[in-house]
Amino acid sequence: MRTVVFDLDGTLADTSGDLVAAANACFRAMGEGDMLDPARDAGTALRGGRAMLTLGLERLGRADDLAEIDRNYPLLLEAYAGAIDVHTTLYPGAMAAVEGLRDAGYGVAICTNKPEGLARLLMGRLGVLDAFHALTGADTLAVRKPDPEHLRETVRRAGGDPARSLLVGDTATDRDTARAAGVPSVLVTFGPNGASVSELDPEATIAHYDELAGVVTRLIG
């Protein structure tokens, strides 16, 4: 079965607001103010918790304090889980595109570097978890993106053939994962990092999910 695999953060949903809020909770617990701005730092937020903690500590002049990052990372995840869907929204047309692919006979799945439990919690809260045939996260396997086995195993769990798949994402990590797996990548241009994704030379880009069905047909039939 042909399978379309989606990244989550910055691809299916804008999760940056809730991620920034969780990081700022950590900085307040350190006795500092809110170190991150939801608008200015959205791109960093979509790179994950450690990236946000690193950026905030850099602004405090503590860029090399790896121990503080390690200590606060579990606290960030706890804060995030407690308020995971306050600001998060699905991108326009995302779920219509997913349902259209399903109706056309494609497998659809999520391959994210967010911990699996948090990804399932979020998609459940948004009411769309059951729309996907499979979901794997950063801790599902012994490897994670950009290791191609993360993508391949996601496809297998969706009942598909890894050689007949593509990855929809928003970062160099997604492009590198697809390239390592020998399959196409489609990068979205509507997220915080959208202005620069064409420089990553993916097989295609889309500015709205209305474009996805045609691109998928062109790339994997």
UniProtKB/TrEMBL annotation:
<dbReference type="InterPro" id="IPR023198">
    <property type="entry name" value="PGP-like_dom2"/>
</dbReference>
<dbReference type="InterPro" id="IPR006439">
    <property type="entry name" value="HAD-SF_hydro_IA"/>
</dbReference>
<dbReference type="InterPro" id="IPR036412">
    <property type="entry name" value="HAD-like_sf"/>
</dbReference>
<dbReference type="GO" id="GO:0006281">
    <property type="term" value="P:DNA repair"/>
</dbReference>
<protein>
    <recommendedName>
        <fullName>phosphoglycolate phosphatase</fullName>
        <ecNumber>3.1.3.18</ecNumber>
    </recommendedName>
</protein>
<comment type="similarity">
    <text>Belongs to the HAD-like hydrolase superfamily. CbbY/CbbZ/Gph/YieH family.</text>
</comment>
<dbReference type="GO" id="GO:0005829">
    <property type="term" value="C:cytosol"/>
</dbReference>
<comment type="pathway">
    <text>Organic acid metabolism; glycolate biosynthesis; glycolate from 2-phosphoglycolate: step 1/1.</text>
</comment>
<dbReference type="InterPro" id="IPR050155">
    <property type="entry name" value="HAD-like_hydrolase_sf"/>
</dbReference>
<dbReference type="GO" id="GO:0008967">
    <property type="term" value="F:phosphoglycolate phosphatase activity"/>
</dbReference>
<dbReference type="Pfam" id="PF00702">
    <property type="entry name" value="Hydrolase"/>
</dbReference>
<keyword id="KW-0378">Hydrolase</keyword>
<dbReference type="InterPro" id="IPR023214">
    <property type="entry name" value="HAD_sf"/>
</dbReference>
